Amino acid sequence: MDHSETVRKAPEQVVQVGQAAQLPMATQVELFDPPLCCPTGLCGPTLDQTLLDVSETVQALKEAGIGVERYQMASHPHIFLKHPEVMKLVRERGMAAFPMTVVAGQIVKIGAYLTRHEMEQALLDAKGAEGASR
Amino acid sequence: MTTNTHFQFFSGKGGVGKTSMACTTAVREAGRGKRTLIVTTDPASNLADVFEQSIGHKVTPVRGVSNLWAMEIDPDQATREYIDRAMSPIRGAFPAEIVAVMEEQMSGPCTAEVAAFDRFVDFIATPQAQAPGFASTSVTPTSDVPTHFDTVIFDTAPTGHTIRLLELPAEWTRSIDEASAGSGQTCIGPAAAIQDARHKYERALVTMRDAVQTSFVFVLQPEATSIKETQRAIGELEKLGIRTQRLIVNGIIPVEEQANALFAERRRMQQSYLAEIKRDLHLPELHMYLLDGEIKGVARLREVAHLLFEGHRQHSTMSSTESRAPQSISATTTPMGKISPAALACVLPAEPAHHTRSIFFTGKGGVGKTAVSCITAVWLARQGYKTLLLTTDPAAHVGDVLGVPVTDEPAPVHGVPNLWATKIDPKAAGEAYKTRILDDARRRGRPEASIKVMQEELDSPCTEEMAAFDKFIEYAAGDEWQVTVFDTAPTGHTLRLLQLPVEWSKQLDITTYGSVDTVAADDVAKERFGRVIAMMQDPEQSTVAYVMYPESTPIVEAYRASEELRTIGIEPGLVVANQVLPAEACTTPFSQARWNMQQRYMLEIGERFAVPMLLIPLLPREIKGVGLLTELGEQIYGPALAVEAAPVAAGR
């Protein structure tokens, strides 16, 4: 953990950010959304609390200085296409593959979003894996 | 390059003659050697009727006028093109199943509005046919379509609400760029799908604000509601930095027609409103007189252009505006015949009165839907039915007609027991909807930062529409009233409103991702939509009444609307012919010519709609006030009936 630094934004959140000096806003978390009208689903006929939770998690991660991107097929098709693993799952499982969460380049969950806690854990795991491979 | 093109927007309340005046201007411009394009953004377009040729969703040369082309933006086709453009990088790369879901989702109600609007923006931001990204659309240059127009005329300018869409992408991009802000998402629905849209919208807005390149023309009639609405719309545009340059006052009764008592009376009313227009709107005016027939065909348009721009008639300086309106309308009109039992059955609740009845008055803008709704509601209330009069027209003037304030909460109408009135104000409904959702989010303990994001996303035109629709469903599904009379917005909007339950139901069917509580909420919503759909399809519970003047375009528009609603199982119940000239009032060649024209169209109404018809005579003055509404109700529906109405619950 020599090269890492600890970012303290909110007391309940202690997140390790690797090599922040080199890649200040490197994208560490990528969310591949199912087709949605808008990321919070607020413009549909009913409200989905889960989507609001996700948007909140994304918000908190960004505030903690972690690069998070959300991709929709309609607006970012090229990102999907650039990601062979993502496309493989899309072809194999179709709709059931969504949503997909990629942390540090690894697909960590498909078919549902990570909770805030799972997300933090996944980031720690990714950090650990990175440290181990060094 | 847009620099050499001049844009003219024709705006105004429905039925004031926007299309006629826009076409007249187009013929005029083309006649002066300018390559002219006239575009309509009205989903219920009448351009084809006026030019007497088919036009459709492509730039089409107008026969008989060199230098003139026309196009009717078809919202359905615009939506398909829009989806095609957004989907082109996706098709082929993604599995068919996913492509199908995305296309379904993009066919949702929000896309239609954005797409038609986007298509319209194409003309301002990139009028050049060969503009990038244009190749796949129908403006591809062909041998008979020029690549540059000197003048582009828009029949039906976008409202403030639509122009707001132009501003959104700019705000949206700005906030995304502000990395520190972190949030910055405004839901513009499927508009987000096309990344380069924002540059296009920015250019369009700049053009519309530039008074050198663009002029806004308002068409109005010398009548209170028309003036009021024009004033409101001018103010709305001003807030967006767009100035109105000119007025065309249409439908002025020529001075010679004072020989006719009915027209003389109306003319007196008009003169005071002409003075009001001058005083309150103070903009340059062109005057157009009421003609003895319709404005149709190229030859007629040339004649009218001459009248409008050269003004062969002297603007009368007659200033006798002293009000001597007769106390009773019977002085100048006579009953138009007895109402048929079939027509009556369409407005009364089915017996036994355990069902409520919903009556939807719809039709082209300006045909008198509000007046007919008020007459009907007042009459029904006087028969003892607990009645709610509800307007869904964002530019509602029910309050003016009833002579009482109408708010977004149902309130008793003073002077008419059993009658309540309310309006659905999309802005207010949108605010209430926003507050409800945000309060709920706070109760669930969401942090302020996330509330802020939600707030931004909710700040979208979709929200207002969603919320207004939600309110509509609430009233339509309710059983608090024995009769609900819906005074609806002009045809295009109403069709959307009536079709929305079906469309949203479909959207819920294809919801691809949902947590458990969302699935439950979706089921509740679907059940509610389903009930409303079934209610609208049942003639025992609902009546869709098409209101029209006995003239070509209002009939065609009502007919098209009825055909469209038929496709979702809603049959027409009633037709209302408004402003019918009583034969005995037609004492001059001018009025006789108009009477003849009306009689021909009355036959046509009968042929096109095989449903009962109600007749409402042309009156010497505006329909206003409970007294006149009561009198007219009895003239049209008959005197007080011996109705065994269920006892009305006291109060609400």
Task: Produce a short descriptive summary.
The complex is a heterodimer of chains A (134) and B (652). With 134 residues, chain A is α+β, with helices and mostly antiparallel strands. Chain A contains four helices and six strands.
Please describe the topology of this protein.
The complex is a heterodimer of chains A (134) and B (652).
Chain A lengths: L4 E4 L5 E4 L9 E6 L16 H15 L3 E5 L5 H6 L1 H10 L6 E4 L2 E5 L5 H18 L1
Parallel strand pairs in A: 3-4
Antiparallel strand pairs in A: 1-2, 3-5, 5-6
Chain B lengths: L5 E6 L6 H14 L4 E5 L6 H5 L8 E2 L6 E5 L2 H13 L8 H11 L2 H17 L25 E5 L4 H18 L19 H13 L4 E7 L3 H16 L4 E9 L8 H21 L3 E5 L8 H13 L30 H7 L9 E6 L6 H14 L4 E5 L6 H5 L8 E2 L6 E5 L2 H18 L4 H11 L2 H17 L5 E5 L3 H19 L6 H22 L4 E7 L3 H15 L5 E9 L8 H20 L4 E5 L8 H12 L15
- Note the overall shape of chain B: globular
Strand content of chain B: 5-15%
Q: What oligomeric state do these chains adopt?
A: heterodimer
* Chain pair sharing the greatest interface: A-B, 39 and 55 residues
Number of E-type strands of chain A = 6
Largest sheet descriptor of chain A: 4 strands, mixed
Rg of chain B over CA atoms, rounded to whole Å, is 25 Å
Strand order of the largest sheet of chain A: 4-3-5-6
**Whole-Å distance between the termini of chain A?**
10 Å
Strand fraction of chain A equals 15-25%
Mean pLDDT across residues of chain A: 74
Strand sequence of the main sheet of chain B, in spatial order?
A: 3-4-2-5-1-6-7-8
Alpha-beta classification of chain A: alpha+beta
**Main sheet summary of chain B:** 8 strands, mixed
Order of helices and strands of chain A: EEEHEHHEEH
Give the overall average pLDDT of chain B: 78
Terminal-residue CA separation of chain B = 61 Å
Helix content of chain A: 25-40%
Ranges of chain A with pLDDT <50 over ≥5 residues? Answer: 1-25
Low-confidence stretches of chain B: 127-141, 172-194, 313-335, 642-652
Rounded to an integer in angstroms, the radius of gyration calculated over CA atoms of chain A is 15 Å
